[in-house]
Amino acid sequence: MTIPTPEPRLTRDHLEQLFTKMAARRVVVVGDAMLDIYLAGDAERISPEAPVPVVTVHTRRAALGGAANVAANVSAIGAECRLVAVIGDDARGDSLRAELAQNRLADRHIVVAAARPTTSKTRVTARGQQVVRIDEEVEDPIAPRTENQLLGQLDAAMADADAVLIEDYNKGTLTPSVIERAMALAKKRGIPVVVDPKFKHFFAYRGATLFKPNRRELEQAMGATLDLAHPDALPTSLDKLDVDNLLLTLGAEGMVLVTKDRQFTRIPTMAREVFDVSGAGDTVTAWVGTALAAGASVREAAQLANYAAGVEVGKSGVATVSPREVLGMHEAHYDQLGKLRRGGLL
């Protein structure tokens, strides 16, 4: 039986020292970049053409999504982030570049594929309620010429990197060759590899430092339902995946960390108010990867990422999280624990 271990106690001084180290690191993010578009307005009537609401749009905003959102979160931590991704030669690609600039991210490792659209997700809301989401994308693997260009950019970005974060949304960027090159370069440099997987390439990341699926993805890959009350199956999953550590995200239930020494850590959610879960997984990837790059233990990195996710879900749409906000969440968490202990509830 695997015995759950308590979450690590992080002091304020230790966190501040860790944040300073994180801000000095160089982190590569490779994977499927997207543009998130938000159209917000009012719906006062039903269309005469079909039984659907007519939304009069009042505001429009764009944000980075997918691998680009991971990169934005790494940049918000203060680290240097290099995004290796593919966009189309289109207006949405131009918007994505503009958003990169707004987030202090260079676009020098972005590859433009003229025959491929920039992946985008447009969310239409009326009075705060989402009415429809429109996805514009091609999920086929990138063409060989684009793949060769991407491999060249990956080589350049990884030359002196401190960590690589692989963000897979099944949109075609992460071909077997790209995955193999990223893993090989990381192994050569001896740096951490954090993987946010999807089913298509689930077992392609042998040797990864940390593998971060959600519960549904892991159950689908393993072909079995996970009983977290009896977590013996999780070390078995670790063996099948052949990765060092497994960080299983559970939405409102927090996360579970299984380390290579077979220790099991349950990490409850830190969210005080859940406004929007969009991008929470990207935030976890960015924070856990940058913390590992700075020398944090896997348990420390997971705890930091949990704080960051708790902040992110309290914001509207995909959003970045700053070290100051994570420190605030940390202080609030231990203040609450102190009150419970003084009240005899712990």
Number of helices: 10
Q: Kindly report how far apart the N and C termini lie.
A: 25 Å
Widest beta sheet: strand line-up: 1-14-13-12-11-10-9-2-5-6
Structural Rg: 20 Å
Order of helices and strands: EHEEEHEHEEEHEHEEHHEEEHHH
C-alpha geometry: globular
Can you summarize the main beta sheet? Answer: 10 strands, mixed
Q: Name the CATH class.
A: Alpha Beta
- Return the CATH architecture: 3-Layer(aba) Sandwich
The stretches of 5 or more residues where confidence is low (pLDDT under 50) are none
Summarize it.
With about 350 residues, the chain is of the alpha/beta class. It has helices at about 10-25, 65-75, 90-100, 145-155, 175-190, 215-220, 235-240, 280-295, 300-310, 325-340; strands at about 5, 25-30, 35-45, 55-65, 80-90, 110-115, 120-125, 130-135, 165, 195, 210, 245-250, 255-260, 265. A hairpin with a 6-residue loop joins strand 3 and strand 4.
Characterization of this structure:
The structure is a single chain. This protein is α/β, with parallel strands linked by helices and 346 residues long. It has one domain: UDP-N-acetylmuramoyl-L-alanine:D-glutamate ligase, CATH 3.40.1190.20. 37% of the residues lie in helices and 25% in strands. The chain has ten helices and 14 strands. The strands form two sheets. A ten-stranded mixed beta sheet has the order 1-14-13-12-11-10-9-2-5-6, with helices on both faces. A hairpin with a 5-residue loop joins β12 and β13. α4 runs parallel beside α5. The longest helix has 20 residues.
